[in-house]
Amino acid sequence: MKVLHVLYSGLGGHGNVFFSMVGADEKHEFEFVAVFFGIEDVRDEYVKKAEACSIPWFYVKKKPGIDFEAYKKITNIILEQAPDVIFLHSSAYIFPARKAVKQSAKKMKIVVRETQANHLKTKQEWLGLCAALLKANRVVFLSNEYRDAVRKKLFFVFSNKKTTVIPNGIDLHLFSPAQKQGTDTIRIGMLSRLTPSKDHVTLIHAFAKCLQENKTGKKIELHIAGEGESKPALQQLVSSLNLTGHVFFAGLLDVADLPAYINKLDIYVHATLGETMSTAIMQVMACRVPIIASDVLGVNNMVKDKQNGLLVQAKNELELCKAIWVFINDPVLAQTLATNAFNFATENYSNKKMLQSYKAIFNS
């Protein structure tokens, strides 16, 4: 079965999920094609992975706003490739896909994986989701909470029969715990795009407070991985708080380098204003690293307070600082919750389980 994926060209969950599906296809049941689309250049890591797996790939550069020429290119690629399934990693891609289906003599199925958090959707993205709910064969949501919120808002086009829930999955062989060596440094970290929707500002302020209160005799460091538009402002904030030498920006890491980065951390903090489903949290859970996260939609359905991590109010540096000290002062609790998170991830976030769920949709 030939499955053509349309996904974002830059850093984000699209690429992680696509290559997780490729890795899970151990029996080579699917012929994958990748169309990388976006305002960012396609990541070198994606190109190398696609070529290593002998996956045909295309890159369509998009201009800001509605780019009809770019949509036309996507339509033409779909028509040339003639897949059995068009897999859209965002409902925003529905229009060129639907046009290709109408023009093709071959019957092609459209499956949409809806990923944009509701609170971040633009009017154009809500329109795309409406169109997907009407025109796609199936729309997949990442959680029941996310699906229910969309059902409530778009009840006039929502169909229970055309929608389903499939959580993302990760490679549990790649993301796994590593033996930690005792050091005199406590490493706190966060992995995400550096954008306003993430709450790095609160994390940095909370870390500064922890540094002031530190009487453990150990060094405390903050390691921030990722790139994005907020980086210059965050670096300036670090400098203004005299945290240079305590806060380190790791930059953009390839997926293959993420397990080593995660496993060097003693505490992972995911400070955010909202998510759809955080791939980073799944990866950290699978590495059995203690997690503190913002109590927001898209996170609190994964992290359960005092069960497999700690939840704190978003934009509350005092509460975040307090939670960090809970883990530092009680390593037994930290590891107990981390083990619970690890067990949860292995049961729910396997890329093989994810692929089997999509396979059922492809064949329905």
List the helices and strands and how they pair.
Blueprint lengths: L1 E7 L4 H12 L6 E8 L5 H9 L4 E5 L6 H14 L3 E4 L5 H10 L5 E5 L9 H13 L2 E4 L2 H10 L9 E3 L19 E7 L8 H14 L5 E7 L5 H10 L6 E5 L6 H6 L3 E4 L8 H8 L4 E4 L15 E3 L4 H13 L1 H18 L2 H12 L2
Parallel strand pairs: 1-2, 1-4, 2-3, 4-5, 5-6, 6-7, 8-9, 8-11, 9-10, 11-12, 12-13
Helix pairs in contact: 1-13, 3-4, 7-11, 10-12, 11-12
Contiguous uncertain segments of 5+ residues? none
Highest-level CATH class of the largest domain:
Alpha Beta
In terms of DSSP E residues, the strand content is: 15-25%
**In order across it, which strands form the biggest sheet?**
3-2-1-4-5-6-7
Count of runs of 4 or more consecutive helical residues: 13
- What's the CATH topology label of the largest domain? Rossmann fold
* Mean pLDDT figure: 96
The fourth-level CATH homologous superfamily of the largest domain is: Glycogen Phosphorylase B
The tally of beta strands, per DSSP, is 13
> What would CATH call the architecture of the largest domain?
3-Layer(aba) Sandwich
Q: What's the N-to-C terminus distance?
A: 13 Å
Secondary-structure element pattern, one letter each: EHEHEHEHEHEHEEHEHEHEHEEHHH
Derived structural class? alpha/beta
